[in-house]
């Protein structure tokens, strides 16, 4: 974990309301693991006050990238940053995806900007280990679909669902995933990893449990310190509260008490 | 003037290498921050509150960002006194800084038991008595608003514990001077001003409170002027030193508290925003003294110039 002043290398709109920002931060880039995040101060001011957490989306040499959607004051300010500006970063933070050597297949389920940590995971895993990866990508429409080509470029199988049916399966990504599961295509030695909106994660977790498959989810929560000290970002686990910033953001879905999730 | 200004400060029996501490609840037990800054440089660490038994804390959501501030309702989540001593205190002891343990209870006896136990431990330099947490149902704030209750609690704590006692006061009272005087009469050595301001935020889409606990404590720059005013009022009413806190983000903010009457300051919410804040504040105070030609920090305390 480091605190660094990082230079913005680029800040590009990828679809309406979503941006990819490249940041020069060799120390963080070197040690980042898939599923970890950076806690970023959008401006050196008292308003907005707190840092904002973002999953690491790509790492290349001395650079990291984040993929973010403009949802509030912080991300709006972020979207206006230009090349050459400096941003204060804390990272890499949290526990990422722990994948043991018995896993032969990764089944990834991504909703919206939830692709970010899963893309990083795939880029590390698929290439290095030459193992199979199947990606379920969901979005509202064809126009809002993220990373389809990038995933294909890594040699993964991509299955797409859009809510309006403009591309791939018409419906939610969790419905497509359920259909795929029920067709008996989930082989043993598979690990399911999901990131996206909470209702989606809840469904994926429950479907995985029914199929007796291990499922990791990457969760989001409003954070204070981002390093485990303030205990502000907790969720209810099976054995008490868990900090999303330090015990997560990646959790085994079985360790979470889903009845307590909002 | 040559060399660095003298930043040492004496708060009664408690001597600090510099007047900048980190506030309880914003620094955990130091473990996380030790990876980011040199804890040896701090004037002192005020730990996250410790209760007799482990405390799970409040249901989420526990945090809401508001304009220039942070609303929290953590609910004193902590591993309890024994785990604190075994795991957290043993870690903190390794650093050359003052360790001030923040203690909280649901009833008077809880405070007495914790104080007794901690006074036997090595490495505790002072206790900060939390009688002002707005986020727990029993105790906490209810202790902090009644001068008679405070007087008796402090008096009994002094009987069982020889450590310097710091009383952390709540701003959620009509007249903080009354509460401060009661603490002083009971035998408090130092006062911490202020804890968070009781506050609330509503989600208009869902018509629900934004915090799991419905209400919470407001901290950050939003409360700084309130805290400075209270330090000013209390410094004129008591003769014991004050540690000022509430929204300190930079050295100038800390200096406001000092000039208003605080003998030391604590950085709180800013630790979340920039973990280097306490170090920057220490440097900034030194620079200010040098620039102004003031040779000791102590002479700045309560130096507010008022035309009467």
From TrEMBL, chain A:
<keyword id="KW-0472">Membrane</keyword>
<keyword id="KW-0249">Electron transport</keyword>
<feature type="domain" description="FAD-binding FR-type">
    <location>
        <begin position="1"/>
        <end position="99"/>
    </location>
</feature>
<dbReference type="InterPro" id="IPR039261">
    <property type="entry name" value="FNR_nucleotide-bd"/>
</dbReference>
<dbReference type="GO" id="GO:0050660">
    <property type="term" value="F:flavin adenine dinucleotide binding"/>
</dbReference>
<dbReference type="GO" id="GO:0046872">
    <property type="term" value="F:metal ion binding"/>
</dbReference>
<keyword id="KW-0408">Iron</keyword>
<feature type="binding site">
    <location>
        <begin position="52"/>
        <end position="55"/>
    </location>
    <ligand>
        <name>FAD</name>
    </ligand>
</feature>
<feature type="binding site">
    <location>
        <position position="245"/>
    </location>
    <ligand>
        <name>[2Fe-2S] cluster</name>
    </ligand>
</feature>
<dbReference type="Pfam" id="PF10418">
    <property type="entry name" value="DHODB_Fe-S_bind"/>
</dbReference>
<dbReference type="GO" id="GO:0051537">
    <property type="term" value="F:2 iron, 2 sulfur cluster binding"/>
</dbReference>
<protein>
    <recommendedName>
        <fullName>Dihydroorotate dehydrogenase B (NAD(+)), electron transfer subunit</fullName>
    </recommendedName>
</protein>
<keyword id="KW-0285">Flavoprotein</keyword>
<dbReference type="GO" id="GO:0009055">
    <property type="term" value="F:electron transfer activity"/>
</dbReference>
<feature type="transmembrane region" description="Helical">
    <location>
        <begin position="106"/>
        <end position="127"/>
    </location>
</feature>
<keyword id="KW-0274">FAD</keyword>
<dbReference type="GO" id="GO:0016491">
    <property type="term" value="F:oxidoreductase activity"/>
</dbReference>
<keyword id="KW-0479">Metal-binding</keyword>
<dbReference type="InterPro" id="IPR017927">
    <property type="entry name" value="FAD-bd_FR_type"/>
</dbReference>
<dbReference type="InterPro" id="IPR001433">
    <property type="entry name" value="OxRdtase_FAD/NAD-bd"/>
</dbReference>
<feature type="binding site">
    <location>
        <position position="233"/>
    </location>
    <ligand>
        <name>[2Fe-2S] cluster</name>
    </ligand>
</feature>
<keyword id="KW-0001">2Fe-2S</keyword>
TrEMBL record, chain B:
<keyword id="KW-0665">Pyrimidine biosynthesis</keyword>
<dbReference type="GO" id="GO:0006207">
    <property type="term" value="P:'de novo' pyrimidine nucleobase biosynthetic process"/>
</dbReference>
<comment type="function">
    <text>Catalyzes the conversion of dihydroorotate to orotate.</text>
</comment>
<keyword id="KW-0285">Flavoprotein</keyword>
<keyword id="KW-0288">FMN</keyword>
<dbReference type="InterPro" id="IPR012135">
    <property type="entry name" value="Dihydroorotate_DH_1_2"/>
</dbReference>
<comment type="similarity">
    <text>Belongs to the dihydroorotate dehydrogenase family. Type 1 subfamily.</text>
</comment>
<feature type="binding site">
    <location>
        <begin position="268"/>
        <end position="269"/>
    </location>
    <ligand>
        <name>FMN</name>
    </ligand>
</feature>
<feature type="binding site">
    <location>
        <begin position="195"/>
        <end position="196"/>
    </location>
    <ligand>
        <name>substrate</name>
    </ligand>
</feature>
<comment type="pathway">
    <text>Pyrimidine metabolism; UMP biosynthesis via de novo pathway.</text>
</comment>
<dbReference type="InterPro" id="IPR013785">
    <property type="entry name" value="Aldolase_TIM"/>
</dbReference>
<feature type="binding site">
    <location>
        <position position="168"/>
    </location>
    <ligand>
        <name>FMN</name>
    </ligand>
</feature>
<feature type="binding site">
    <location>
        <begin position="246"/>
        <end position="247"/>
    </location>
    <ligand>
        <name>FMN</name>
    </ligand>
</feature>
<dbReference type="InterPro" id="IPR049622">
    <property type="entry name" value="Dihydroorotate_DH_I"/>
</dbReference>
<dbReference type="InterPro" id="IPR005720">
    <property type="entry name" value="Dihydroorotate_DH_cat"/>
</dbReference>
<dbReference type="GO" id="GO:0005737">
    <property type="term" value="C:cytoplasm"/>
</dbReference>
<feature type="binding site">
    <location>
        <begin position="48"/>
        <end position="49"/>
    </location>
    <ligand>
        <name>FMN</name>
    </ligand>
</feature>
<keyword id="KW-0963">Cytoplasm</keyword>
<dbReference type="InterPro" id="IPR024920">
    <property type="entry name" value="Dihydroorotate_DH_1"/>
</dbReference>
<feature type="binding site">
    <location>
        <position position="194"/>
    </location>
    <ligand>
        <name>FMN</name>
    </ligand>
</feature>
<feature type="binding site">
    <location>
        <position position="48"/>
    </location>
    <ligand>
        <name>substrate</name>
    </ligand>
</feature>
<feature type="binding site">
    <location>
        <position position="24"/>
    </location>
    <ligand>
        <name>FMN</name>
    </ligand>
</feature>
């Amino acid at each position: 974990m480091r605190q660094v002043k990082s230079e913005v290398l680029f800040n590009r709109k990828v679809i309406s309301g979503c941006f990819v920002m490249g940041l020069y931060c060799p120390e963080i880039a070197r040690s980042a693991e898939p599923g970890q995040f950076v806690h970023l101060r959008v401006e050196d001011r008292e308003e907005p006050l707190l840092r904002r957490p973002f999953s690491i989306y790509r790492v290349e040499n001395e650079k990291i990238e984040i993929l973010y959607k403009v949802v509030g004051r912080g991300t709006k300010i972020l979207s206006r940053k230009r090349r050459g500006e400096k941003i204060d970063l804390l990272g890499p933070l949290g526990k990422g995806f722990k994948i043991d050597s018995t896993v032969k297949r990764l089944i990834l389920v991504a909703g919206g900007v939830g692709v970010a940590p899963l893309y990083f995971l795939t880029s590390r895993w698929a290439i290095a280990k030459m193992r199979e990866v199947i990606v379920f990508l969901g979005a509202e429409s064809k126009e809002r679909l993220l990373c389809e080509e990038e995933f294909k470029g890594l040699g993964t199988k991509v299955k797409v669902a859009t809510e309006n049916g403009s591309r791939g399966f018409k419906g939610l990504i969790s419905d497509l995933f359920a259909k795929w599961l029920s067709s008996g295509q989930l082989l043993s030695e598979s690990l399911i990893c999901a990131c996206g909106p909470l209702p989606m994660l809840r469904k994926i977790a429950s479907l995985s449990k029914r199929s007796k498959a291990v499922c990791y989810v990457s969760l989001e929560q409003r954070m204070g310190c981002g390093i485990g000290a303030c205990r502000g970002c907790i969720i209810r686990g099976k054995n008490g509260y868990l900090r999303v910033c330090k015990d997560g953001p990646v959790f085994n879905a079985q360790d979470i008490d889903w009845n307590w999730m909002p | 003037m040559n060399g660095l200004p003298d930043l040492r400060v004496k708060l009664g029996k408690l001597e600090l290498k510099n007047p900048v501490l980190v506030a309880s609840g914003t620094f955990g037990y130091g473990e996380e921050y030790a990876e980011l800054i040199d804890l040896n440089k701090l004037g002192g660490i005020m730990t996250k509150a410790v209760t007799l038994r482990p405390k799970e804390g409040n249901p989420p959501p526990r945090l809401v960002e508001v304009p220039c501030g942070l609303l929290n309702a953590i609910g004193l989540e902590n591993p309890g006194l024994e785990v604190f001593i075994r795991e957290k205190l043993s870690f903190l002891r390794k650093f050359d800084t003052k360790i001030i343990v923040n203690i909280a209870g649901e009833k008077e006896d809880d405070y007495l038991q914790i104080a007794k136990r901690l006074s036997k431990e090595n490495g505790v330099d002072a206790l900060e008595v939390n009688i002002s947490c707005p986020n727990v149902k029993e105790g906490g704030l209810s202790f902090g608003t009644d001068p008679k209750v405070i007087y008796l609690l402090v008096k009994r704590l002094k009987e069982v514990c020889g450590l310097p006692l710091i009383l952390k006061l709540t701003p959620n009272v009509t007249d903080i001077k009354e509460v401060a005087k009661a603490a002083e009469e009971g035998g408090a050595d130092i006062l911490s001003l202020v804890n968070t301001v009781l506050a609330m935020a509503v989600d208009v889409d869902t018509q629900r409170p934004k915090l799991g606990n419905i209400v919470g404590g407001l901290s950050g720059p939003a409360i700084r002027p309130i805290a400075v005013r209270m330090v000013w009022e209390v410094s004129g009413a008591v003769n014991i030193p004050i540690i000022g806190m509430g929204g300190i983000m930079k050295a100038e903010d800390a200096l406001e508290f000092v000039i208003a009457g605080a003998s030391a300051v604590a950085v709180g919410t800013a630790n979340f925003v920039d973990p280097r804040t306490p170090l920057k504040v220490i440097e900034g105070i030194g620079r200010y003294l040098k620039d102004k030609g003031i040779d000791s920090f102590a002479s700045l305390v309560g130096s507010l110039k008022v035309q009467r």
